[in-house]
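To: structure desk
From: M.T.
Subject: fold request, one chain
Message: Could you run this one when you get a chance? Sequence is below, nothing fancy, just the single chain.
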Amino acid sequence: MESNGALWTLMEQPEGTDMTSNEGSFGLFTEEAAPLDVQACDRCELSGQRTRVIWGEGNSNARLVMILDNPGAREDRLGNPFLCSTRETLQRGMREAGLDRNLVYVTFLLKCRPIRAYNKPAAREACLPHLQAQLLEKRPLVLFGFGNVVAEALFPWKENASVKELRRDWHEWQGIPVGLTYHPLAVKRRPNLMNIFVEDLVSLNNKFAACLSRQSNNQ
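Reply: Done. Structure tokens follow.
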């Protein structure tokens, strides 16, 4: 675990990192191109804001899929590679938990990066079928969501679908085990959440290892 001093340093860092000064193993995941039909999606107003559809990033064949609410910036205003605070904090937590970034695929509830105000419920409703189709195609061994928005999207029938209520336990979506934790930006803004964040990622690492072992034994 990071010490209190390290957590305070994390809190004081600027919102995002220039990739030319990025530390250690932190960096952008490889982006996976969206299917052609999704690239032309105009189901919601975000189609008029985006520069492109962000389908997902990381190891596209990974059996562990993480879900965030929407993609952050991958480039700065000059077009240079840029690591946003969400991705940086996520990778900090993964490193502390011993979770190999090469075994992970990260996707998003919204497939377009918002750049100004928009109708959030309408956009989420319009984009959810893309996520559902993507997950059914990839059929991961384990899913892991970040933040209340993702929790509500995965479990709309639950009366109180919040991270606070759902974390620590494993749930199911289409027969796939699902875990949840706080959004990386919440952890960035509230450093006292980092230990909980890492604890949940350790639980994820253990769950994923168990699922891989079970799959291997069944082959």
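Reply (cont.): Strands lie at 17-18, 31-32, 56-58, 64-68, 82-83, 104-108, 142-146, 171-173, 176-181. Let me know if you need anything else for the meeting.
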